Amino acid sequence: MLLEFKAKNYKSFKDETSFSLIPAPKQKGLDYSILKKKVGSKIHKGLCSAVIYGPNAAGKTNIIGAMEVFKAIALRGNIRNNDDDDNHPNTAVNALELIPNNLNQNNEPVEFSIKFIENNILFQYQLSIDIGTFLDSDYKRQVLFEELSVNEKMIYSRSEKLEFGDFDAIKEYLVNEFEGNIEGVKSIAKNNLVDEELFLTNGFKTMFSAKLVGIINNWLDNKFTIVYRANALKLTRKFSDSKKQRVYVEKTIDDAAKLFGINSNALGYMIREGESEAKLCSIFKDNKRSTAIPAEIFESYGTIRFVNMFPLVINVLQNGGTLIVDEFDASIHPMALISIINIFHNDDINTNKAQLVFNTHNPIFLNSNVFRRDELKFVERDDETNFSTHYSLSDFRTSGKNGVRLHEDYMKNYFVSQYGAIKDIDFTSIFESFLN
Questions:
Q1: Are residues 393 and 422 in the same domain?
Q2: CA-based R_g, the chain, Å
Q3: Could you give the C-alpha distances from 190 to 15, 183, 248, in angstroms and in order?
Q4: Are 332 and 253 in contact (CB under 8 A)?
Q5: Is 277 exposed, middle or buried (CB count within 10 Å of its CB: 0-12, 13-18, 19+)?
Q6: Ordered DSSP codes for 256-291
Q7: What is the per-residue burial (b if ≥16 Cβ within 10 Å, else e) of 314-326?
Q8: Residue 314, domain member (yes or no)
Q9: pLDDT score of 117
Q10: Is residue 209 assigned to a domain?
């Protein structure tokens, strides 16, 4: 369960921004949106959903991009560029010189921090890296700061020196071989830091606790699902060579597609001769045979996007993961999306405490019957500095000129700029000039 993510000096976010899924104090209504997990004797609460609003180029996608870049760095364990995946939609995942704010002339570090719960353990991991200024690809990079806390106790902290905290908090996860010489191992670790490598996934993993790092990496890799630029999402299927069928129809996906509007054919996956990777196709049946054609030829763009996205929703609900999607609602009808949102809000279905976060331009979700005030997030960009800021509707007071009361018309207030994160756009003068 994700509780909080912070980023600083990431693209348009020059100053630190905190994206929180911790319920705001004194918020009432929609209590089914609150997830609870017990860690020791303490109960931690988290929101099961959030939606991010803001004008074009405000920085909504940058919040999601920062999460994905941090995830990629943590999983590969270093701050070197990755040249193996040139087709990734978020190029900053591979080319870290694209991360720093491009208007910042001073060499300031990029910072990330994440707090989440997995296996009834509260993790907090902080990372500060010096990767130079924007586009400085030849800069000698260095990890400036790194800290891991477990159940609110510092395990190690790395800056100029490496310091260790309370290992009693993780004693059941420590490597057995070093039980009698833990101080000697700490001394070796202090003298073997590498500037471009994370201590978490290198020294700490090999010397102290592969089990604990395994829990962190498994959550990041399998439960922290980030879809950056959803229009680039193309889900594929792989099947073993032992199967002889060339066409597969997954009942759950096909049933969902029928509810979505498909009724004249089935949707499934087709494998060509000599290939193990299946592609989405439309399947037509008559009394004699079945014919499968690529879905992009017959289906609408919205249908293909929905079918590609639906398995991710199933996966996070099944595994209790967190799904972060850029423009989740593009080409998909709002009623289908509200149904999915309601699934995450349904305590009887969302028993594994899954979370859904997405950004949008559709104002239909600005509704107190759909989202709590602390689930409605905003991003706006200053026209003078070009820096982005992020805040929640719950950050407003409940009284006064700009106060936000429960059950107000959030959509109306947003369009009269009561909450900010909106711009007046009038192309009239451009068209008049062009046509004249």
A1: yes
A2: 24
A3: 31, 11, 54
A4: no
A5: exposed
A6: HHHHHT--SSEEEEE--TT--EEEEEEEEE-SS-EE
A7: eebbeebbbbbbb
A8: no
A9: 97
A10: yes
My answer on whether 248 and 389 are in the same domain is no
Amino acid at position 404, single letter: V
Separation of alpha carbons 362 and 411, rounded Å: 10
How many domains is the chain partitioned into structurally? 2
172 within a domain of the structure (yes/no)? yes
Residues 191 and 273 in one domain: no
Are residues 409 and 279 located together in one domain of the fold? Answer: no
Q: Are residues 66 and 149 in the same domain?
A: yes
pLDDT at 26: 80
User: With a cut of 50, which residues of the chain have pLDDT below it?
Assistant: 238-244
Residue that the structure tokens 């959903």 belong to? 49
The number of angstroms, rounded, from the C-alpha of 52 to the middle of its chain's C-alpha atoms is: 12
Mark whether 189 and 50 lie in a shared domain: yes
Q: Which of 305, 222, 319 is nearest to 257 (CA)?
A: 305
Taking alpha carbons only, the member of 219, 272, 221, 230 closest to residue 247 is 272
What does the H/E/C string look like for 282-296? EEEECCCCEEEEEHH
The angle formed by the CA atoms of residues 82, 226 and 138, to the nearest 5 degrees, is: 25
pLDDT value at position 239?
A: 46
* Residue 101: DSSP 8-state: -
Question: Do 365 and 272 fall within a single domain?
Answer: no
pLDDT of residue 265: 75
Looking at the domain assignment, is residue 313 inside a domain?
A: no
What pLDDT sits at residue 241? 44
Tokens for 93?
């995942």
Measure the CA–CA gap between 284 and 294, rounded to whole angstroms: 11
Whether residues 281 and 417 share a domain: the answer is no
* DSSP line for 110-135: EEEEEEEEETTEEEEEEEEEE--STT
Axis crossing angle, helix 334-345 with helix 301-319, rounded to the nearest 10: 0
The CA distance from 215 to 339, in Å, is 32
For residue 142, count other CB atoms closer than 10 A to its CB: 15
Element containing residue 142 per DSSP (H, E): strand 142-150
Structure tokens belonging to residue 336:
């289908």
Cβ atoms of 309 and 326 closer than 8 Å: no
Q: How far apart are CA 27 and CA 50, in angstroms?
A: 15
User: Roughly what angle, to the nearest 10 degrees, separates helices 251-260 and 301-319?
Assistant: 130
Q: Which domain holds residue 424?
A: 1-229+326-436
SS3 390: strand
